[in-house]
Amino acid sequence: MTGDGTYRSGFATLVGRPNVGKSTLLNAVLGQKVSITSPVAQTTRNQVRGVLTRPGLQIVFVDTPGIHKPRTLLGARLNDTANDALAGVDVTVLVLDATQPLGRGDRFVADLVPPSALCVVNKVDAAPRRVVLDQLQAAAGLGLEEYFPVSARTGEGVGALLEAIVTRVPEGPQLYPDDMVTDVPEAHWVAELVREQLLAVTREEVPHSIACRVTEWEWPRVRCEVLVERESQKPIVIGRGGSVLKEVGTRVRAQLPPGAYLELFVKVDPGWQSRPKALERLGY
């Protein structure tokens, strides 16, 4: 309990455009990886909850998909997922990118958050000091409550941000067990790790056309299906002699408990990003 005998708990949502570093920030706050990351926009496709527990305090952080102008039904549903995460939370954190000028997309997202929101200018390690100061000045025009220069990658400024969030968490009951860091199901987490590493290995070739789902779970044996939209994408994901899948499998197993046996299969599912039933099967 806190010094006055009360317990505080609440929700803090991270929102922003794609690729501003929300997932990296969540991982930095928690001190461990609970959300996949990549330089590719729209890496996060679901709400990801990470739980920070301290004596007398529990904060549930919600990572969200980047809000953008959708081109597919998947994109529209990702926006809906992010918007839904803004309802009924105790703290809203708007994340901006220090390396990119404040644009219409940022202002659009800023209009969705309450004036009490905290504003993070992230990636300050990747921008000159003058650029960071200009970005902070531009962000001040959004009329939010407080502003924080942060590098989620190095940890700079994360502590100050976290303490500001802590002061805004209301009195409430403990929501999750002490040892729970995320509510992401294991099978979903493995599928996300596979997609993360596919994005890393295939880079810009087929990022938005890839979806992953675990179809068999008999631990330590896991079968994961990789979906692409076109036949021409299949050899890119497999690689010459299966090289891409082998590399991805090696990288994912390194993040799983010892003894895990991961099978990866590639399937063509034409136009899955725009078909409601396909999206529902994938949990979008």
Automatic annotation (TrEMBL):
Pfam families: KH_2, MMR_HSR1
UniProt KW GTP-binding keyword: yes
Region ranges (G1): 16-23
HAMAP family assigned: GTPase_Era
Similarity-based family: Belongs to the TRAFAC class TrmE-Era-EngA-EngB-Septin-like GTPase superfamily. Era GTPase family.
Residues bound to GTP: 16-23, 63-67, 122-125
Membrane topology label: Peripheral membrane protein
Chain positions covered by the region annotation G4: 122-125
TM ranges: none
Location of the protein in the cell: Cytoplasm; Cell membrane
Protein name: GTPase Era
The entry's keywords: Cell membrane, Cytoplasm, GTP-binding, Membrane, Nucleotide-binding, Ribosome biogenesis, RNA-binding, rRNA-binding
This protein's encoding gene: era
Subunit details: Monomer.
Keyword Membrane: yes
Major subcellular location class: cytoplasm
Region of interest (G5), ranges: 150-152
Annotated region described as G3, given as residue ranges: 63-66
Signal peptide per UniProt: none
Sequence segments annotated as region (G2): 42-46
SUPFAM superfamilies for this protein: P-loop containing nucleoside triphosphate hydrolases, Prokaryotic type KH domain (KH-domain type II)
Era-type G domain sequence ranges: 8-171
Organism name: Acidiferrimicrobium australe
Stored InterPro entries: G_ERA_dom (IPR030388), GTP-bd (IPR006073), GTPase_Era-like (IPR005662), KH_dom-like_a/b (IPR015946), KH_dom_type_2 (IPR004044), KH_sf_prok-type (IPR009019), P-loop_NTPase (IPR027417), Small_GTP-bd (IPR005225)
Function noted in UniProt: An essential GTPase that binds both GDP and GTP, with rapid nucleotide exchange. Plays a role in 16S rRNA processing and 30S ribosomal subunit biogenesis and possibly also in cell cycle regulation and energy metabolism.
